[in-house]
Write a structure and sequence with these properties.
- The protein is α/β, with parallel strands linked by helices.
- Strands 1, 2, 3, 4, 5, 6 and 7 form a 7-stranded mixed sheet that branches.
- Helix 3 links the parallel strand 5 and strand 6.
- Helix 1 runs parallel beside helix 4.
Length: 153
């Protein structure tokens, strides 16, 4: 039996490159039908016919970045109906911080997406990074778990 590739779009914004690194690792693990693209360059037509939508942003001022907010604000009410989706963010390890991934999940769900996994967070060292050791590997494992969810749903 031929293995069907997952048609996935990993939409991200990045400030210092850490979120891009995570997004690209996720897209690579999802396979040849997946690609990672900057939030500012996504057209509405690219959101059609996806098996999976992954959206990630750094936390800026307790919420997703401005470019990610612009992308999310552009989603219509039922635009993502029938699309499975997950969200992630990159953040510093401090006691209290924002939760961009949860906010992204809520916005994707409001646009009609089915959220299939709880939001994931990846940690950076200080404001600019780099990512903590093991975070890229954690993103690959997360992508594998998402792939297995797609097969069982």
């Amino acid at each position: 039996m031929e293995k069907k590739s997952i048609k996935a779009l990993v939409i991200f914004d990045t400030t210092f490159g850490n979120t891009k690194t995570i997004a690209e690792a996720i897209a690579k693990e999802l396979g040849s039908g997946a690609k990672a693209v900057q939030a500012s360059s996504v057209g509405a037509s690219e959101l059609k016919g996806l098996d999976l939508l992954v959206v990630g942003s750094p936390i800026i001022g307790w919420k997703p970045s401005e470019k990610m907010e612009t992308f999310l604000n552009g989603l219509a009410k039922e635009q993502l109906k029938g699309t499975k989706a997950v969200a992630f963010d990159t953040r510093v390890k401090i006691f209290i911080h924002g939760d961009a991934a949860r906010k992204i999940s809520e916005r994707l769900e409001a646009a009609g997406a089915e959220i299939i996994s709880k939001p994931q967070m990846f940690y950076v060292k200080g404001r600019e990074g780099p990512l903590f050791d093991g975070e890229v590997e954690k993103s690959v494992e997360w992508a594998k778990s998402i792939k297995s969810l797609l097969k069982t749903k």
